[in-house]
Amino acid sequence: MNANLTRGSLLAALACLLVGGSFTANSLLGDYPYAGGQFLRYGLACLLLLPLLGRGGTAPLGRLTRRQWGRLAVLAAVGMVGFNLAILAAERTAEPAVPGVFVGCAPVIVAVIVPLLEGRQPQRAVMYGALIVAAGAFTVQGWGRTDTLGILFSVCALADEVGFAVLAVPVLRPLGPKLLSATVCGIAAAESAVIGVVTDGGDWLRVPDTTEAAALLWQAAIVTVIGFVCWYSGIQRIGAERATLFSGLIPVAAAFTAPLVGTGTYGVPQAVGSALVGAGVALGSGVLRGRRAAARVEDDARDERGIVVHRDVSAAGKAHQAGLGDGVLGADALAAQQDPVARTPRDGDRKARHVVAEEHVAPGGEGLLEARGVAQRERLGDDGLG
Questions:
Q1: Is 336 helix (H, G, I), strand (E, B) or coil?
Q2: In sequence order, what are the residues at sequence separation of 6 or more whose Cβ sits closer than 8 angstroms to the Cβ of residue 102?
Q3: 0.85 cut: is pTM over it?
Q4: What share of the chain is helix, strand, coil (3-state, %, to 5)?
Q5: What tens digit of pLDDT does each residue of 102-144 get?
Q6: DSSP letters of 217-285?
Q7: What is the separation of C-alpha 88 from the centre of its chain, rounded to a whole number of angstroms?
């Protein structure tokens, strides 16, 4: 199995299991002010993440454009603060299973929208896997009583969950998982404080009791710090559409942990649903298909020699091509982060097994691929790749 696929899958799975387990902690915070709890959770998580960045770890923030900062603000507002608020609002008139079922459909939405944003067709295996995951999530949770308002807020929670994955993709490249997590946590803490002051006035924050403090610490240190870094590391390796498949593990983890605090049971429906989620994740993520399912690597129609073409990286001497960063909020400032290649490396040792022919060496005289350099043609157009 491809090592990158394996690591990415394990990281995404761990993140979603931690989030699912956090639903148990949420049940212990029912009497704590919502905005104040979000402020403490994300603020503490940001402080815990900063030492992990190392010296100069925040430097990439200075290179972000206004549009990228806007994307980060929307990501925090939608995928973090907004998601939790939508769940809370939905559960006022609906049983918890209702928003859970809607959120379980996130893999299906992401499996469609991410390929379309990248200008390609959805992958059938991912789509089939997402549908099985959604069915498994429904089986685990069932369907509860609700009204129109509960359904509307559940749909909002679904949209927020999709945004949490999709909006992060373009800013994940320049920031990396740790800095991205720290930045959105800081922004989410500030947004929560504003919401708290506006809605609750002076009562938006209070000192938590022992149980509430333990729950908030768990959510900040384990679910947010470890969970967010694992989640974005998983997306970085296997892509948002495959990583989101693992969100089906959230209701499974919630079902496993609920009996520990007496808020639910684990029976035959939960076992069947868990099996369906596992099957859907295995099918859609590619863990059953080995190396051919390497994440986010596409076969180009012009590829006849086994050469992989990454469309988002410009070849030497060619203009930048539109990629993931050129979304609704505009293009990423990637030019400043790219190192130009002045000329094609050549060794001219005329040894066999060179994978790419050299420009100034006679046929059959290609050099052995060296440890510190990759031979490439200066004129890719001559090789059918221009």
A1: helix
A2: 151, 154, 155, 157, 158
A3: no
A4: 65, 0, 35
A5: 887 888 888 888 888 888 888 888 888 888 988 887 887 776 6
A6: HHIIIIIIIIHHHHHHHHHHHH-HHHHGGGGGHHHHHHHHHGGGGTS----HHHHHHHHHHHHHHHHHH
A7: 23
